Amino acid sequence: MRYAFLIFAVSMLCAGTTEARQDSVRLADLDVTIWSQRAEAKQPVIIFSHGFHGCATQSRFLMEAFAADGYLVLAPNHRDATCNGGKDSWLSRAEVPLRDPVKWDETTYRDRGDDIRRLVGTIGTDNRFRPRVDLSRVALAGHSLGGYTVLGLAGAWPSWKLPGVKAVLAFSPYSQPFVEQGTLVGLSAPVMFQGGTLDFGTTPALQKTSGAYDQSPEPKYFVEFDKAGHFAWADAGITAHEEIVAYSLAFMNHYVKGEPTPSLTKKIPGVALMRYASEFGKN
């Protein structure tokens, strides 16, 4: 089992053989960090939404892995960013208290959804990116409040819905508003939720009976990493980075690139719980 895991993890981590380049641009009236590598063909696109008081570069390890595997990755600084040039303060409070998810609605952090909608529209017309991007293969990824953002864009908030999204990765997402209001049934793209056994604030809302995973339509996945806390998906975290990269690439490569990835349903060492309901069956 351990040997099989090493083959799986190494193959995912080494899928891209060219080092990814990082650039910073002003795009769609946003400060955007871009990871990419040179490619002759148009590239699939991943838009990353950072966590509350995080920033575009908070999860560089994962963005570099996506780019090395052939994706054009764009991450904007949202209004609440505090690093990478972000102007907000760690002392500023959320628009609506996180402890009161029933008070959240489609107006809550709508600016974040608008940022990504505007960014996707701009790369299709900007001459720096229009020749490079394949807008028929756009996926979203987000951490914490960024997970809330991308779930909303995938249909959990109907008025936010961004057409054409191929897949959604929700890393320790703040899903409680959707769970409370039962709106995850509106998701229109395959979703993978990722959580951790030490992520006490958000993971329980994903895995509990009638939680985010149960309420979401198929195809859907939930991976819980052992000993992973809320910041495991950021560079500041020290747990499960290789496993996070492996599952994230397997998911994106299958649903965005159309690659066969039977490893997507394997429960490997370092994973406490693996659930799925998709074309691969149910577990």
Q: What's the arrangement of secondary structure elements?
A:
Layout: H1 2-13, E1 21-27, E2 30-36, E3 43-49, H2 60-68, E4 72-76, H3 110-123, E5 133-143, H4 145-156, E6 165-171, H5 176-181, E7 191-196, H6 203-207, H7 212-215, E8 220-225, H8 241-255, E9 271-278, E10 281-282
Helix pairs in contact: 1-8, 2-8, 3-4
Structure description:
It is a single chain. With 283 residues, this protein is of the alpha/beta class. It has one domain (2-282): 3-Layer(aba) Sandwich (Rossmann fold). Helices cover 27% and strands 23% of the residues. The chain has eight helices and ten strands. Strands 1-2-4-3-5-6-7-8-9-10 form a ten-stranded mixed beta sheet, sandwiched between helices. The two termini are 19 Å apart. The model is unreliable at 1-17 (pLDDT under 50).
Mean pLDDT over all positions: 93
Oligomer: single chain
The CATH superfamily label reads Alpha/Beta hydrolase fold, catalytic domain
Overall shape: it is globular
Strand content: 15-25%
Q: What summary fits the major beta sheet?
A: 10 strands, mixed
Topology pattern, helix = H, strand = E: HEEEHEHEHEHEHHEHEE
- The helicity comes to 25-40%
Spatial order of the strands forming the largest sheet: 1-2-4-3-5-6-7-8-9-10
Fold-level CATH name: Rossmann fold
Total discrete domains: 1
Helix tally equals 8
Cα separation of the termini: 19 Å
Structural class estimated from helices and strands: alpha/beta
Low confidence ranges:
1-17
DSSP strand tally: 10
As a whole number of angstroms, the C-alpha radius of gyration is: 17 Å
According to CATH, what is the class? Alpha Beta
CATH architecture: 3-Layer(aba) Sandwich
